[in-house]
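To: structure desk
From: M.T.
Subject: fold request, one chain
Message: Could you run this one when you get a chance? Sequence is below, nothing fancy, just the single chain.
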Amino acid sequence: MPNINKILVGIDGSEYSKRALHFSVDLSKKFGADLIAFTAFNIPDIYKAYNNKENINTISIDEEIQKSKNLLDSIAKSAKDHQINITTEFIDTKLTPDVAILEYSENNGVDHIVLGHRGRSIENLLIGNKANSVVSKSKCTVTVVK
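Reply: Done. C-alpha cells follow.
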C-alpha cells in the first residue's frame, strides 16, 4: 500500500472537480493525509473561454478571482463543518494551471494529486485537457476522477 501524506485536489467549480474533491476527502481520511484544495487562476485562460463570444468585454477579472476565492472559502467552511482537515490554496499565476499544479506539488511535498477528468468552468479552466499534462509530467501519483 502506498504511503500518502499530502494530497492536492484541483478545484475549478466544475462537476468533475467536485467529484475529485469528494474522492480526495475519502482518500485523505483513509490515509490520514493532509488535503489541499488548489486553484490556479490564469487570466489568459479566462479570455480564451470567451473567445468569439459577444460578451468578452463584460468579463471582470476581479469578479472571477472573487468567485474562485469564494469557492475555496465555501469548501473550507464545509470541510470544517464536517470535521475534515483541509487547506485551501489560491494561486494567481501567469503559469498555465497544469504547470502551476506540478510546480506547487513539487515545491510542497505533495505525494498524490487528484484531478477531475474534465473541467471547463469559466472560473479557472483548471482541469480540462490539463489533466493529461499533469498525469504525464508529475513525479507523484495522479488520480483522475470521472
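Reply (cont.): Helices lie at 15-31, 43-49, 61-81, 97-107, 130-137. Let me know if you need anything else for the meeting.
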